[in-house]
């Protein structure tokens, strides 16, 4: 780790203190994990404090940890929360970056506070995370689907979402409108079976 990155890590730990869950370094970037309850306060400090000045939210994405850490037996070794949101921050004035990850407290109804009041650009990013992962953002001014249509059922980036989807859309000439109906495609396994005989002997 460079001296500059080390100094940033130490300053983050000193200023944010108990709001941090962890802070790690990997391939020249810091990842800060903070508590959901103090997310708005933490992000405001990261934007406004002179030592940080993260003026820009570059990206925001959802993560589903449902199958994270599976071993060779298919057993899930992950014991943390299922859903998280990752924020990528940039300080143009100080030329430094930071990744912030926060876990939603509820796996059934994941919700985090919106960042629109901190960085207005979070608006569409949060709509995308809601659409694809079903993560709700409390206080968002217009939280509705962004990439899928209004009749779409489910959230396609969740690990348990079926590959063929839940509903299909088609035009019905009798009703003269688009209708939604249950998927009529049969489930197929397209993964080829490989049979190996490791114990054969040639004469």
Automatic annotation (TrEMBL):
* Originating gene: nuoC
As its record notes, the protein acts as a catalyst of:
a quinone + NADH + 5 H(+)(in) = a quinol + NAD(+) + 4 H(+)(out)
| Keywords recorded for this protein, A-Z | Cell membrane, Membrane, NAD, Oxidoreductase, Quinone, Translocase, Transport, Ubiquinone
Enzyme Commission number, as recorded: 7.1.1.-
Main localisation, per the record?
membrane
PROSITE patterns, alphabetized = COMPLEX1_30K
GO: which molecular function terms? NADH dehydrogenase (quinone) (non-electrogenic) activity; NADH dehydrogenase (ubiquinone) activity; quinone binding
The way this protein sits in the membrane is described as: Peripheral membrane protein
Similarity comment: family membership = Belongs to the complex I 30 kDa subunit family.
Protein name per UniProt: NADH-quinone oxidoreductase subunit C
SUPFAM superfamilies (UniProt xref): Nqo5-like
